[in-house]
Design a protein that fits this description.
Among the domains are: about 110 residues, Beta-Lactamase (2-Layer Sandwich); about 100 residues, PAS domain (Beta-Lactamase), CATH 3.30.450.20; about 180 residues, Heat Shock Protein 90, CATH 3.30.565. The protein is flat and about 150 Å long. The two termini are about 95 Å apart. The protein is an alpha+beta fold. The longest helix has about 70 residues. A five-stranded antiparallel sheet has the order 9-8-12-11-10. The protein has a five-stranded antiparallel sheet with strand order 14-13-17-16-15, with helices on both faces. The chain has a five-stranded mixed sheet with strand order 19-21-22-24-23, covered by helices on one side.
């Protein structure tokens, strides 16, 4: 019965409040409506006034333009007869050479015709008027006269709403100030510059603005009416919700008992250990999970006892843990929850275990009455974390590069070896795609095969040429494996890589010396063998054959030259390939080196009786050709390129050499009119020991036509230029089209021998 009375009293009070809210809402909406009507009225009047001001500015622009030109001459017709009020103006009427009669129109005359047109088309009237008239047609009416008199008193503008022919109009007027150009027609009236000569009057019909205003009124009436209805709907829904809430409250008391029982069930079935304490730290309740973790058999063994002294009395190192330092006291005193990620608790049998603990103050009616503590056993977690830490340390300290990505390929982890190998820091790599290491040395099919293998769930193993942050290239053996989730889906990839750049270089050096031993030394050794036979024959017979002796000496010289070329090439190749820091870089002019090589080639051409014109053009100012280089190596490289161009140029043709400065670089162009080369030959010409001719004839002469060679000239030349921070490239249109070699060196920039500038992996 009491519940019913309470409910009736609440509903009665609620209904009274609802009536009050409806009244207040109605007042608010009506107030907003009147405010909107006021703003619409003000807006309409402001728009009309702006239109009047715009027409005034238009009239003044016409007047100013006409006045500054001293008036305008127009043909005389019925609409524009000569103005009798300008009879005092000299040359009011003139006749053109063709016989056309023209008359002068002053600003007032022009504005009167223009405003007549505006009145006919737009209904906007305007004209010039004055208290001191030149033309009686401009006589002001009563309103205009009052406005003109106010202008004499210093007023800037006048406007008012009046009826004209039964229709509302906005009348607007501003003073017309005398300017120098006005004196041509009005000077005889005694005006001076700056005087108020009259004013420009404008009349704007307000019918369209009245229509706009009433249309807006209707819209605002409708909008505010809808707003009012929505407010009433909100009040109705709110009252319904409040009544529903009240009914729910009535049933809440019955549900409270059920809730308490449910909470007990939850505590009893929680996997986490939970216990409560009072303000003195004595245990007030404990759940079964807590009893089990602590090794107790019944609730009575803990409830009522000081919980700190029972399970928290000693530190992990065995030293006593004073109760005053226990965080449980802090939580109760400060009324603030806290959390300990690692803490030791003690079981009934005296053993300890590691836990993660949460402390929460327990309040009633705003007052702290105790605390609730829950904890979990993290012994297994700590063991797992130690295992992961050992694994992480091993990966971090590994000499192998380790990269972990997500399924899309975005990098999630790299170890220290990755930073040392690639030059990218961990922060730069995380979130990026492994394509930041892409060198361009592998085609799309190569990477497609890699990803197809990984997508199938298999492990990919292979050889990659990648690019470091500084642009250097390096080689690595990679093993990339997909990482699968619980349902077999790919959750990421793990790549383990080993840098084999130096191993590859050592193999190249070994291959070089093997080739030299098995092929390149054969010809000079054959020459030495033939020379030995000739000398033995001469020694056996005792006859000195002058011709054979000369031939033997020539063969010896040729063999020595061959050995010298092979040894020099071998030393340079070894230095460049194995990154030996034996080159001596100094600041030196490039022009003398180029001139020396050109003169040497001309001399050798003459000795070999070859008819090749070698021209040179140095287009660099003095002291502008400085480069930082190993002079001997650069000179060797230039000589090899010139020799190569001459070697494949027939007699009667030319080799043109040009040096210039471009974009901070010194560029040498060597253009021959030789046999050229095919696309396939161009792609292979930089490979070691590749020759356009048979290597069997490589020692027949350094400058002889199609004399072959040891197949290392262009290879070494390119390595040398790249080691100096430059490059060497070939351009050709094909066979019989000649070849242009482009050699580039940085001008006046310190250069050091870098790994990325050498090797057979191409240009970085």
């Amino acid at each position: 019965m009491s519940n019913i009375e309470d409910k009736s009293g609440f509903l009665s009070l609620l209904n009274r409040y609802l009536v009050f809210v409806v009244l207040v809402w109605t007042v608010v909406v009506v107030t907003l409506l009147f405010w909107d009507i006021y703003r619409v009225k003000e807006s309409a009047e402001a728009q009309a006034l702006n239109e009047a001001r715009a027409n005034f500015k238009k009239d003044m622009a016409f007047r100013y333009w006409t006045a500054t030109h001293g008036g305008v001459y127009v043909p005389v017709d019925d609409r524009t007869p000569p103005n009798p009020y300008l009879a005092h103006v000299p040359e009011r009427d003139i006749t053109t050479p063709s016989g056309t009669k023209l008359t002068l129109m002053n600003p007032a005359y022009v504005m009167r015709q223009v405003n007549d047109y505006f009145m006919e088309v737009y209904g906007v009237a305007g004209h010039l008027t004055s208290l001191k008239l030149l033309n009686p047609n401009n006589t002001p009416d009563d309103w205009e006269r009052a406005a003109l008199e106010s202008f004499e008193m210093g007023v800037d503008e006048a406007f008012a709403v009046v009826e004209i022919k039964g229709e509302p109009h906005l009348r607007f007027m501003r003073p017309n100030i005398v300017e120098k150009a006005c004196l041509k027609c009005h000077g005889h009236q005694g005006y001076e510059v700056g005087d108020v000569r009259g004013g420009v009057s404008v009349s704007i019909p307000l019918t369209q603005y009245e229509n706009y205003k009433w249309h807006e009124y209707y819209d605002h009436f409708a909008a505010n009416g809808i707003l009012w209805l929505f407010g009433l709907l909100g009040v109705a829904l709110g009252s319904r919700w409040l009544k529903s809430q009240f009914r729910d409250t009535i049933h809440a008391q019955d549900g409270l008992r059920v809730s308490e029982e449910t909470q007990r069930l939850l505590l009893d079935n929680m996997a986490e250990a939970v216990f409560g304490t009072d303000l003195e730290g004595n245990c007030t309740f404990v759940n079964p999970a807590c009893l089990q973790m602590l090794g107790y058999d019944s609730v009575e063994e803990l409830v009522g006892k000081n919980i700190h002294m029972v399970i928290h009395h000693t530190h992990e190192d065995g030293t006593p843990f004073p109760e005053s330092e226990c965080l449980l006291n802090y939580v109760i005193q400060q009324n603030k929850p806290t959390h300990i990620k690692r803490e030791v608790l003690w079981r009934k049998n005296g053993s300890s275990f590691t836990t993660e603990i949460w402390f929460h103050p327990l309040a009633k009616d705003g007052m702290v009455v105790g605390a609730v503590v829950n904890f979990i056993d993290i012994t297994e977690r700590i063991r797992d974390e130690k295992e992961r830490a050992r694994l992480f340390t091993a990966i971090e300290q590994s000499q192998e590069v380790v990269v972990i990505t997500d399924p899309s390929g975005a990098i999630q982890y790299v170890n220290r070896a990755f930073e040392l190998s690639t030059g990218f820091s961990r922060s730069e790599a995380i979130g990026a795609n492994p394509r930041i290491l892409k060198s361009g040395k592998h085609d799309r099919e190569y990477y497609k095969n890699l990803w197809d293998t990984l997508a199938s769930g298999a492990t990919w193993k292979g050889h990659l040429i990648n690019k470091r942050k500084d642009g250097t290239l390096y080689e690595e053996e990679s093993t990339i494996s997909p990482v699968s989730g619980e349902r077999g889906e790919i959750t990421g990839y793990v790549a383990v890589k080993r840098d084999i750049t130096r191993e590859s270089r050592l193999q190249q050096a070994r291959d070089y010396f093997t080739s030299v031993t098995s092929h390149e030394l054969r010809t000079p050794l054959t020459k030495l063998g033939l020379t030995r036979l000739v000398l033995e024959n001469m020694g056996r017979t005792g006859k000195q054959d002058q011709e054979s002796l000369v031939a033997s000496i020539a063969a010896l010289d040729s063999a020595i030259n061959d050995f010298s070329r092979i040894v020099t090439a071998g030393e340079m190749f070894t230095d460049l390939t194995l990154y030996k820091k034996t080159m001596s870089f100094k600041d030196a002019p490039l022009s003398p080196m180029l001139s020396y090589c050109v003169e040497l080639s001309r001399k050798n051409l003459a000795e070999e009786n070859r008819n090749i014109e070698v021209s040179m053009s140095i287009e660099v100012e003095k002291d502008e050709d400085q480069v930082v280089c190993d002079q001997a190596m650069v000179q060797y490289a230039i000589g090899e390129v010139i020799s190569n161009s001459i070697k494949y140029t027939p007699d009667g043709k030319r080799v043109r050499i040009r040096m210039r400065r471009e974009n901070g670089n010194i560029v040498i162009y060597i253009m021959d009119e030789g046999i050229g080369m095919s696309k396939e030959e161009k792609e292979s010409v930089f490979e070691p020991f590749y020759s356009l001719e048979s290597t069997e004839t490589h020692s027949t002469g350094k400058y002889a036509f199609k004399s072959g060679g040891i197949g290392m000239g262009l290879t070494l030349a390119r390595l040398i230029f790249q080691s100096h921070g430059g490059d060497l490239e070939l351009e050709t249109e094909g066979e019989d089209a000649g070849v242009m070699v482009v050699m580039t060196l940085p001008a006046r920039k310190a250069t050091v021998l870098k790994e990325n500038r050498v090797g057979f992996m191409g240009k970085t």
